[in-house]
Amino acid sequence: MITVKNLTKSFGPRTLWRGLDLTVPAGRMLALVGASGSGKTTLLNCMGLLERPSGGQILYEDTDLTRLGPGGRRRFRRDRLGYLFQDYALIENATVHANLDVARRRGTRPDHTRILERVGLAGREREKVHHLSGGEQQRVALARLMVKQPSLVLADEPTGALDSDNGAMVVDVLRQMSRQGCTVVIATHDDDVRDACDAAFDVHRQREV
Ligand SMILES: Nc1ncnc2c1ncn2[C@@H]1O[C@H](COP(=O)(O)OP(=O)(O)OP(=O)(O)O)[C@@H](O)[C@H]1O
C-alpha cells in the first residue's frame, strides 16, 4: 500500500498541488488522470524517488519514503519498485535477454521465453534493444517488470507508443501483477486504461473521479 499525505510540490514560485492525499492499497490499480501539466508525471516521480516533494509524506507500508537516506532509497528502488516510464530506461546497447537478466532477483530463474511470448516478442531475445521500435522497447520494459516482480509499479503513459491490441495486453499484464498483490499506479490520458483501473484520481482536482 502506498499513502500520500498532505503532499505539496512547487517548482520555483509555481505550486502544482498543495495538501494532496491519496491511498492505493496493495492489489489495486489506480489511474492518475487530469489535464496536461497537472502534475501526473511529477507525482509518479515523487512516489518513485526520482523527485523530492516540497512538503508532506509518502508512506510505503510503514516506511516514509521522503525520509529515506541514500542506502534506503537504493534498496527501495532495487527491491520494491518497478518503473514503466516513457524513456523505458533500457540498456540500449544490450540485447533483449541482457535487459531482462539485469532485473532478475537473486535465486530466481524467470522463464524469458514465456514472458517474451506474453508481450508479443517471442524469439527476439538476441536482438539489440536499439534495433527495436518504440512500441517494442515499451514491451521489453514491460517484460522486464514481469522478470523483476516488484511490489509497486509506477507506469507513465504505458500504452503511449502502442496499437490498441498491444495497449490492451499491457493493461492485462499490469492487472495480473495487481492480482498477485502488487500496487499499480498509472498516469494516463487513455480512457481504456482508465476504465480498466479500479479507480481514477484527478491530480488537478485532487480527488477521485
Ligand atoms: N523540473 C522541473 N522544473 C520546472 N517545472 C517542471 C519540472 N518538471 C515538471 N515541471 C512542470 O510541472 C508541470 C507538471 O508537469 P508533469 O509532467 O508532471 O505534468 P503531466 O500532468 O504529467 O502532463 P502530461 O499529461 O502533459 O504528461 C508542468 O507545467 C511542467 O512544466
Automatic annotation (TrEMBL):
> Keywords in UniProt for this one?
ATP-binding, Nucleotide-binding
Sorted alphabetically, which SMART domains does this protein's record hold? AAA (SM00382)
Q: Name one Pfam family in it.
A: ABC_tran
Name the Gene3D superfamilies for this protein: P-loop containing nucleotide triphosphate hydrolases
Under Gene Ontology molecular function, one entry of this record is:
ATP hydrolysis activity
> What does the entry list under GO cellular component?
plasma membrane
InterPro entries xref list: AAA+_ATPase, ABC_transporter-like_ATP-bd, ABC_transporter-like_CS, ABC_transpr_LolD-like, P-loop_NTPase
The molecule here is called: ATP-binding cassette domain-containing protein
User: Species name for this entry?
Assistant: Thermobifida halotolerans
What high-level taxonomic lineage is stated for the organism? Answer: Bacteria, Bacillati, Actinomycetota, Actinomycetes, Streptosporangiales
